[in-house]
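Reopening this ticket.

The earlier resolution said the output was attached, but the attachment link was broken on my side. Pasting everything inline this time so it's all in one place.
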Amino acid sequence: MKTIYENYRGFKINKDDSTYNAIHADRIIFAQSPLSQILDSIDHYIDLQEATESHEDVTSFPQN
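Inline output:
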């Protein structure tokens, strides 16, 4: 397995034969090909996580 990125937005990207693996917290989160598709998947995943966190921050304040 060849390492492509050691840290791409918190993910380690490896290439295994013709498949790219995105590993986070020692678990494979995405396994896709080509490389651009897996990078797009990571970007989308991170954007969704950030949107969810920012929405939770806003809704956690008391409503008057």
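Reporter confirms the inline version is readable. DSSP finds one helix and four strands in the chain. Residues 2-59 form one domain.
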